[in-house]
Description:
Strand order of the largest sheet: 20-21-22-29-24-27
CATH topology of the largest domain: Spore Coat Polysaccharide Biosynthesis Protein SpsA, Chain A
Number of helices: 11
InterPro entries: Man6P_isomerase-2_C, Mannose-6P_isomerase_type2, NTP_transferase_dom, Nucleotide-diphossugar_trans, RmlC-like_jellyroll, RmlC_Cupin_sf
CATH superfamily of the largest domain: Spore Coat Polysaccharide Biosynthesis Protein SpsA, Chain A
Strand content: 35-45%
Helix content: 10-25%
Largest sheet: 6 strands, antiparallel
Keywords: Nucleotidyltransferase, Transferase
GO molecular function: mannose-1-phosphate guanylyltransferase (GTP) activity
Number of domains: 3
Domain Nucleotidyl transferase: 4-271
Structural class: alpha+beta
Protein name: Mannose-1-phosphate guanylyltransferase
Low-confidence stretches: none
CATH class of the largest domain: Alpha Beta
Amino acid sequence: MKLVLLSGGSGKRLWPLSNDSRSKQFLKVLKNEHGEMESMVQRVWKQLKAVDLDQSAFVATSKSQVDMIQNQLGGEVPLIIEPERRDTFPAIALAATYLYSMAGASLNEVIGVLPVDPYVHNNFFKKVKELEDVLMTSDADLALLGVEPTYPSSKYGYIIPELPQHPGTSGLTVSHFKEKPSEEDAEGLMKQKALWNCGVFAFKLDYIINLLVQKGLPIHYEELTKQYGRLMKTSFDYEVVEKTKKIVALPYAGSWKDLGTWNTLTEEMSTTQIGKGKLCDKSTNTHIINELDIPVTVLGIENAVVAVSPDGILVTDKQSSPNVKNLIKDLVQRPMFEERRWGWYRVLDHVKYAEGDEVLTKRIGVFKGKNISYQLHTRRSEVWTILKGEGLFALNGEIRFVKAGDVLQVPVGSKHGIKALTDLELIEVQTGSELIEGDIERFFLTWDEIEAHCAFASK
Length: 459
């Protein structure tokens, strides 16, 4: 069985720590067994390794998340990259064509699909393995993993099985689905042995490939990538699951949580405070999550979340916290903090002047041994001031050693890149007419390529 982990979406429900490039799965707010902070995606990948599923797993993601995945999981994790975000059906269709035409999977191969961020124990992934047998020993087109409910939740969708079940059926034959019922209706569904739909399912590869053929869509990855904009922005549930006649469900009796809102996420945090700040004794069940260098103090406020990042500040009681997505839906701003394959950056200041000029100031961190690509910008000049560490700086074909205190000029149109010999930090001041991340032309990604095309400066 091949696994496809879906990593997409924007970060509105855990704003302001999450944004359009840093979705909830990348937030390092959970502690691992060594007391170190880790993200949901790091936790899940570690769990896949523990049950020997990582070697057959792929991460399907958008271009905007590639750097962050490589930053947190390393550069060896196989990625299936969407040209743009178009919901779960296009993402899964693209993954299917990749496995078929690029990874050499047979049409009879079972493909499992799951979110990249469930909060579960390792036995959940052992249950995922069983989906292959369930699908192969039944005549079903889809096999779903369903969680046995522990209470009548109105937050989740439900899988309702047929009653009574046919003798000898592998898994539970599915009758229909119910999306987010009232608590009263959920109690009735539990009596019908309904399961929470946790978004985990499996199919034989030919089922989706044949579906694409029927829709007149390409079944080769490179061609579908070119025509990706033709695919409707629609969910896999709507486009496939609800139209599939033969579906079985495999019940899972262990713990499962979707840490998609501040109130559910803070339930699993091992500390009430991350970052600078103070909580008074009477602020019970209140959490501070602070990414800035300024202290945050909370006095006498109970059952609340105070989340602080370069993108903004949120103060909310926990019961209301899921509504933040609707409150900020019209907020449009560039991400103020991003993790990249080489490190991270934080926007410190952004000023637009009446005559059209802009000045953007960033603090940038490059990890030891990593490098920023050899690139140029057509609409801005840059000045870099090295704050910490040592590195190699490439500019227009010449490489030289740099250290803390050095000031580097990067004129408009200059090819440039930098490698950190030790952990490196710098202040970058951009000046130009349109300061956007898209103003970049990359020539070489690796430092070996850069050194092959540049010469070291003579002393």
